[in-house]
Amino acid sequence: MATLKEFEEALRAHGMQMALTLLEQLRARDRATRTTRPARRVTGRKMTPELARAILDLHATTGMTQQEIAFKVGVNQGRVNEVIKRGKWLDGDPNAPEAQDRDRAMARMQGDSKPRSRPAAPRPRAAKPTATLPAQDVKPPAGKRPSSGGQLSFGDL
Questions:
Q1: Max Cα-Cα span within the chain
Q2: Greater confidence, 90 or 129?
Q3: C-beta separation of 102 from 46 below 8 A
Q4: I need a surface site. Which of 54, 73, 114, 116 has the fewest CB within 10 A?
């Protein structure tokens, strides 16, 4: 498969000026309608239930992508995804996990030196007792020794 540049060189080599003119017109049209913009970092707006509802409304009523919605409302695409897929931020509960995470991040950004409470570490689960079966006497075939786990000895083969 040839690249576009190789294709253009082949057209030039064969003197196909009309095809080159057409190719240049297509390029100019593509440049004029190009919607890709350089990436930019969006400094997050504080997520609120009203903003979450606006995101859901834009998602439901327009054909915008999550990235386009994020640029329009001033949040990052991950937040838009959380609202659309998981229904986060729809209630105004300040004790919701996402609200607490947001507040801790804002405190870190402002250089707040107050101690942050960390969630308690999950306790290890106790092992479930397993039923043991009585040991059965299984004898190896005559002439062979029982092998240990995954090791082979010379007599095993």
A1: 90
A2: 90
A3: yes
A4: 114
Q: If we measure between CA atoms, which residue out of 92, 96, 50, 101 comes closest to residue 74?
A: 50
**Cα 94 from Cα 103, distance rounded (Å):** 9
Residue with tokens 């540049």: 5
Nearest C-alpha neighbor of 79 from the set 42, 35, 109: 42
Report the percentage of the chain scoring pLDDT > 70.
64
Buried b (16+ CB within 10 A) or exposed e, 120-154: eeeeeeeeeeeeeeeeeeeeeeeeeeeeeeeeeee
Tracing tokens 């409304």 back to the chain, one arrives at: 57
In this model, does residue 152 exceed pLDDT 60? yes
Mean pLDDT, all residues of the chain: 75
In angstroms, what CA-CA distances link 51 with 41, 132, 154? 19, 58, 72
What secondary structure letter does DSSP report for 16? Answer: -
Helices 77-86 and 49-61 sit at what angle, rounded to 10 degrees? 80
Say what the pLDDT of residue 79 is: 87
